[in-house]
Amino acid sequence: SAEVESIIDILTDWRFTITGTKGWPSAQVTIGGVATNELDPATMESKLVPGLYFAGEIIDVAGRCGGFNLQWAWSSGFLAGKNAAGLQ
Questions:
Q1: Is the pTM of this model over 0.90?
Q2: Measured at the alpha carbon of residue 66, what is the angle toward residues 60 and 75, in degrees to the nearest 5?
Q3: Taking the C-alpha atoms of 77, 83, 87 and 88 in order, what is their torsion angle to the nearest 10 degrees?
Q4: 3-state DSSP call for residue 48?
Q5: How many separate helices (H) and strands (E) can be counted in the chain?
Q6: 3-state DSSP call for residue 31?
Q7: How is the chain split among helix, strand and coil, in percent rounded to 5?
């Protein structure tokens, strides 16, 4: 219907003007870090420097709020630690 199309248009073309932030004390995540394409996803080992492993927020991954970033830190840390210790 025309009403549904109008709602879709409004939601998909919704523009926001960012006027500021609450600063670092209120930040949830930051962006940047080691590029994921430079890591072996099965081990978290650097493709550029063998024997060097990365985990958590040092990697350029940012999940939505709600525990996703914590889970990423735990899971990538488990993989990196296990493989760095030679416990594959």
A1: no
A2: 50
A3: 110
A4: coil
A5: 2, 0
A6: coil
A7: 40, 5, 50
Of the listed ranges 5-9, 51-55, 80-84, the least confidently predicted one is 5-9
Nearest to 51 by CA among 88, 86, 19, 10: 86
- How far is it, in rounded angstroms, from Cα 7 to Cα 1? 10
Cβ-contact 57, 29 below 8 angstroms: yes
Round to whole Å and give the CA distance between 28 and 63: 10
Q: How far apart are CA 85 and CA 88, in angstroms?
A: 8
| pLDDT of 29 higher than 80 | no
- How many Å apart are CA 6 and CA 64, to the nearest integer? 28
